[in-house]
Amino acid sequence: MQRMFRLKQLVLVSLLFLSACSLMPKQPGYAEKVARERAQVAAWSAQDNAQASTSLNQLIQSSALNALLEEASSANPSLQQALLTLQIRRAQATQTRAKRLPSAEAGFSASKAKDADTSYKSELSVGWELDLWQKLTNNTHAANLDVEQQEMLFQSARDSLGADVMKHWLGLISQQQAIEIEQKRLNTLQKNAQFIVRRYKNGLGSLEDLDSARSNVSSSQASIEAEKEGLAQQQRALNTLLGRAKHRAFEIDASYPTVVMPLADLPEQTLQRRPDLRAAYLAIKAETLRTQVAYKELLPSISLGAALSDIAASPTAALFKNPIWSLLAQLTAPLYKGGALKAEAEIAELQTAYQYQAYRETLLAAISEVEDALGQERSLTKQQQHIAAALTRARNTLTQYQNSYRTGLVDILDLLNVQQQTYNLEAQLNNIIFTRLHNRVNLGLALGLPIGTELDG
């Protein structure tokens, strides 16, 4: 009889495992699909004068900027939210891991019935679910992957914040330069107006010349006010990034700093470095495990329990002096839940497929960001060269026109046009320089360069 009983047990266990194998989904090989997607990425466009860098803050050597980066890392509210989310994920992972361990509960109660003495009862129970199908293990691994994913998202948020601080800091210099250019324009126009007034009083100029000069002065004054407000907005935006409730002014450098052109190494190295891509891949792995868990919910589960209880007429006597113990082994299997468990498993499969498409979207965006930034660098370099050459010629022409106007060879409108063209080119060159440096920070971020954990002065 005992041999027969063991044979039945063996048959039952075999049937359970066969049932488990038949229920397990045949999920696509997402790791192989991801590898194929990344293998298709072509080499980046060629670069000139690029330097290898290990962090974003190495692109600009500035102790003042590094101080701002440190302040933003510790005080920016959005980054602190990302950090708190990471801490929540870690606590949730601890909760998930705890389900693999036995649970123990203790209780003590007193009761009194009519015409009877008070009785006291103590209980101690231990329960444990056998991880027969590795369901609990899979859940734990998925929770650990959630933590890793959030760590990558936190790093991505920190890097993006650092890049924003760097770009706004460059923006302050750009706005200050724009104000200085417009102020030079205004000073020149005011001198012209004064000169024209003198000529007009001497009967050598016309009223139209005077009106044109005054009109240009007013227009330049309006432009200065607009540029000043632009500077104030840049300062407010940077204060917000730094988490400052009380906004403070910044010391602005007189000229642009050197911003290193970061080296774009092989696509595989670049993409492996990007935290957003790593987070997207970890999400696929976590959902793959959850899909397995969802299908394992259709399988029977086995739990073990042990209990000690004691009832006595006094509290001390009820503390397990003559306990009664019991053992329980329980096998449960879902029979019918209206297809809810099956639907849950299908949803989990679709969630995994969704995360794979989200990874592809992130990958395509990463490729585009790198190539766009490289293309911008080439284009802006050529634009800067052309505008610098045009500005040199315009300044030479302005000098000639100023001399010609004083001798009466050209009229005031011709001189004002050349002056406007010269200052317009100065402003255009300033914008191109700022955009080029701004783009280099974007390129560093696109290449996956992080904000250094230790900021060097």
List keywords for this structure.
66% helix, alpha+beta, elongated, 457 residues
Task: Give a quick precis of the structure.
This protein is an alpha+beta fold and 457 residues long. Helix content is 66%, strand content 9%. The chain is built from ten helices and four strands, in the order ααααββααααββαα.
Please explain how this structure is put together.
The chain has a single domain, classed as Outer membrane efflux proteins (OEP) (Up-down Bundle). It has ten helices and four strands. The protein has helices spanning 2-23, 30-39, 63-75, 77-98, 135-201, 207-241, 267-273, 275-296, 340-406, 412-446; strands at 103-111, 119-129, 301-312, 324-332. The protein has a four-stranded antiparallel β-sheet with strand order 1-2-3-4, with no helix packed on it. α4 (77-98) packs antiparallel against α5. The model has no long low-confidence stretch (mean pLDDT 86).
